[in-house]
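Standup notes
- HV: blocked on the assembly model, inputs below
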Amino acid sequence: MKDFTSAYFTMSEQDAVDYIRTKLDFFDKNAELTCREIGDGNLNYVFRVVDEKSGKSIIIKQAGPVARISDAFKLSPDRNRIESDILKLKGELAPGFVPEVYSYDPIMNCCVMDDLSDHEIMRSALLKHQKFPLFADHISTFLANTLLLTSDVVLEHKDKKDLVKQFINPELCEISEDLVYTEPFYDCEQNEVFPGTKEFVVEEFWNDQKLALETAKLKFEFMTKAQSLIHGDLHTGSIFIKKDSTKIIDPEFAFYGPAGYDIGNVIANLIFAYVSSNFVIEDQEKKEDYLLYLKNTISDVVQLFTDKFLKLWDEKATERTAKYPGFKEVYLNSILEDTAAVTGLELSRRIIGLAKVKDITSITDDNDRVLAEKICLTAAKTFILNRSDIRTGNDFVKVLLESVSAYSESIKSN
Amino acid sequence: MKDFTSAYFTMSEQDAVDYIRTKLDFFDKNAELTCREIGDGNLNYVFRVVDEKSGKSIIIKQAGPVARISDAFKLSPDRNRIESDILKLKGELAPGFVPEVYSYDPIMNCCVMDDLSDHEIMRSALLKHQKFPLFADHISTFLANTLLLTSDVVLEHKDKKDLVKQFINPELCEISEDLVYTEPFYDCEQNEVFPGTKEFVVEEFWNDQKLALETAKLKFEFMTKAQSLIHGDLHTGSIFIKKDSTKIIDPEFAFYGPAGYDIGNVIANLIFAYVSSNFVIEDQEKKEDYLLYLKNTISDVVQLFTDKFLKLWDEKATERTAKYPGFKEVYLNSILEDTAAVTGLELSRRIIGLAKVKDITSITDDNDRVLAEKICLTAAKTFILNRSDIRTGNDFVKVLLESVSAYSESIKSN
């Protein structure tokens, strides 16, 4: 058995079994442990250790020495310390919506946490057109609690500054600064544009100076606005879900940033599911039913967040000036404006940039895929340029539906 | 001789002499050292050690165990670490505009630095109606360099985040959050309002919900906008000056905040000098001449800052999006808007709050003092409420002159 106490090495499946036996009193002595590496992310190895006798299971998540997304990004494994601290903190702020963390090991750069194998990655479930009627309620509670309760509205300001310091996250922030805010908006070598969409991207994105100027403003907000302790990568691949449970995972991009960033990522990824379903569900009735479900979910996420945020503000605000008449609404509007902007940024970068979403790449017909991409990009531009007018669930849905409508003739003749 | 190596204690003048002999190879062996504690600040002890033979001298600045401003504020002496690091960094960014630091001692919580006794505190010099024709040029260079070169426009973003972390400053920020952004704007026990001004303050400040709402927005900007490594307390009492030299001292409030904060503090304190001179200089010709000098200085600080900032941006910007057409102007406008707001906040808090300025308190005639205070507060409100329209040196001067004009009848009949 290897030595887990002196120096970091990337574990094999057998190492993971040995590790759990040595380090944690979780399984019976007689347990028959097996292990499989199930990670499909870009940054980590994920070991699932199961007791074949009892069925009990647990997860070990280990940071790889180099991020797997690309050799260009070399990341310090400190991100797993951030992840484990964040999961504990967010578990306190929004109980039940993150996996439980049993231990964090700074030498092996790994943490041991709940096995959520009875859940499914939300993106995959949406690709199979499953519905989760509780999702909007769950995610809006998670968002309102984690975003408001970590802000200066509620936290003692000195405690908040300690958290800002603890979660400064230069390397992971740099990835977002590049991939989300910069590269998609010019002809950068790293972009991967689907051939049929290229001309549209060149004209509507890379040659649009007005759009570029807005992305500069937004990038500086992302780099300077220490508003809330955000998840930082809250797409549907960072959500484990089943009918009655929603668990937010992978908070390694967490830092103090604009609160709207997390909400915008959720909305954008629901929009990918919507646009995808529009092309891939063949049965017309089933399609309309599922699109209605997704449309309502998008609207509900925004409205439930708004309602819960305002209610929580009234209950929890401690900062004197936060209680001045009118300020709550000003603050919320600014979050919703950021939400609209980030919805647009996420839609853009997943079509133009190097990190794609399966919702779109799994559209097998090339013409359909180009149409789907143009719909997403049309919505993206509107979200960014008109962000100060987008405030309600209906406003978000309207931008989506108008972008679909703009291509309805092409869709029919397809 | 006491032991300076094991535990902190507040030094006597004799201790300071012993300290410098033990710790620094600055004076001759035969030097005849004398020492006087010359601090008049609220947070520190300042020892001036002189060699009576050669005239050579040096300063030891030691953090008191408790801030002297009030027993309510207990500060960790870590602020002197921040001060010494900041002076070194700002000395590199704006050479010649800060005192040289020879050493920092984390046990005794003190730093040893240049003696600037041939300079004078700028506030005192302005109270004697001295002119410093190079000041606007000097301070605008200091502001443009330190504010732009520490921002994401120029710095590698990971290095900037390291600096943000290094200079998180919870205790001193709390003082500004309370004294500048909160207390002056409601009937807080700590305020000290001059009796004749009280009614005006109640009506125009404490009963004005619109003004309160704006201060809430500004306070949250101060708490969340990590734009530049600011000085954080750049009034005319933090500036040592002589005809050909300007030295910025006392950066213990430094942290990453809104760039306009420093510029606004400079402008507001020049306005105090202007309003004060208007009442205390008796000779009409001399008064007009000095008011003209101050008016031009206010305008020049803004215009020279603007010019140097834009020039430096073109030379030094490294961030790709910062070079997008139009962004430089958007960014500068936002700094000038913050400048106007902070000018108003500083004017308000020095009249209403507990920390006064001598420019105003030295006006001996009670009616004059009330008029002077009302002029400052009238300007303050305009700076805060109309901040998005105040962009040029002339705009700043206009707000001042209109506020003086509003009381010209009362001044004449006085």
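- HV (later): unblocked. Chain A touches chain B at residues 152, 157-158, 160-162, 164-165, 168-171, 173-174, 177, 181-182, 186, 209, 212-213, 215-217, 219-220, 223-227, 320-322, 324-327, 330-331 (CB under 8 Å). The first helix of chain A runs from residue 13 to 23.
- Next: hand off to the docking folks.
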